[in-house]
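Hey, can you fold this one?
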Amino acid sequence: MATATSDHPSVPAAAPHVLVVPCPAQGHMLALLDLTGLLASRGLRLTVVATPATAPQLAPLLAAHPATVRALTLPFPAHPALPAGVESAKHLPPALFPALIVAFAGLRGPLLSWARALSDSPDDRVVAVLSDFFCGWTQPLAADLGVLRIVFSPCAACGTAVLQSLFRRMPRRRDGDEDDNESPIAFPDLPGAPAFPWRQMSALYRNFKPGDPVSEELRQNYLWNLESSGGFVLNTFRRLEESYLAAPLADLGGIRVARAVGPLAPMADAAGNRGGEADVAAADLCAWLDGFADGSVVYVSFGSMAVLREPHAAAMAAALDRPGGVAFVWAAGPAAPLPEGFEERAAASARGMVIRGWAPQVAVLRHRAVGWFVTHCGWNSVLEATAAGVAMLAWPMTADQFVNARLLVDELGAAVPVSWGGLEAAPAAEEVARVLEEAVNVGKWGDMAARAKELAGEAAAAVRQGGDSWREVEELARELRDLGSQPRQQHQ
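Sure. Predicted structure:
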């Protein structure tokens, strides 16, 4: 058995004990840790699983709840498909992400031994497992322990259901044409029966290889999610996705309506460095933004995992580099292939800033000067922009981003599309520049900006005391507390 370390071993033995298993991917961890903090403040004890590489991300949570949250740090399991030393999705090539998910499942045995060692203690025994949807292997773990498993998704209800549906139904391209990237993939069990071209489906599914061990284990993770008697908990809110939360969906287990508990947000003192130490201090960046008029600055970010291809980076840079162009902050990350001299010209113009490391995104989006957000439509970014009331310029690339973008553009009217080409086709710089000009300087999409402000009010109402999401968290906490008095075998 692997050796585990517990950072806070002296947790009071008074409240029901929940095992929390985040996926080792930054965007996934952040939201589940936020939810863990909410549950800790509602009379639960929680042990959060980490590995040496991901354990530092737990520091703000542990500091805020030293008596009720502890970390269980386990060595990351070795796997032949994964390079040695890799423990998280950070800087991991997208093609290796399935191997990361499968490798992480190697913690099932150590966690079973750890939990069984506590099972004879009424105070310490685990009463439920709360885990990321990429950790479907925790379903048989929970079954072995005779406890409830609850599936957490940091994604939208629609995005989660689409991904689950792909691996449940295994749809193929029309007429078996393996070269037809525009072949529509329909989702008849979802509200409105949406359809998307094959190229807009998650690469996790498009790259599935029947018979390949990693592919088959990946699919099994999704199928296990459908067995969860605890249902799905989603980082979204009812007014954002009403049609997907009105009734049980087959692709979300079909047992009960999924709980919408979002938008989950960081603690106030952790917001500036959410997800990591910011390359630019939030206070310094906000002081720079103070010099601009309300809504006149565009924030650009394609997420923590994306590595922009050169044509995409060149189009974005050329659109921003034009004389008289819009003011901007671009969180480009360390690996984006920006054109030579672009960063220097941006700094010299006094209207542009390029951030090469981690950006304090929450603080940027909440600044009055930021009016538009060029985004890849990753769900964390979508929710942070929604909560801040910032309208989005949608440029989805991969994963669930196209589904999210369609929700924003077609259903909610809160975003303007920049490009639907994804990783395969970059838009012309002239087209990107036109969208920026019409959004910021012309004010063509004032209705989008107004809708974004309206959604911000709805998001705030959802998480306030008595709001829809607040009540869902209360009910989830009550359900977990009630498990403490039930026999262990009840959920076996």
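Confidence is low (pLDDT under 50) at residues 1-11, 267-272. Let me know if you want another pass with a different chain boundary.
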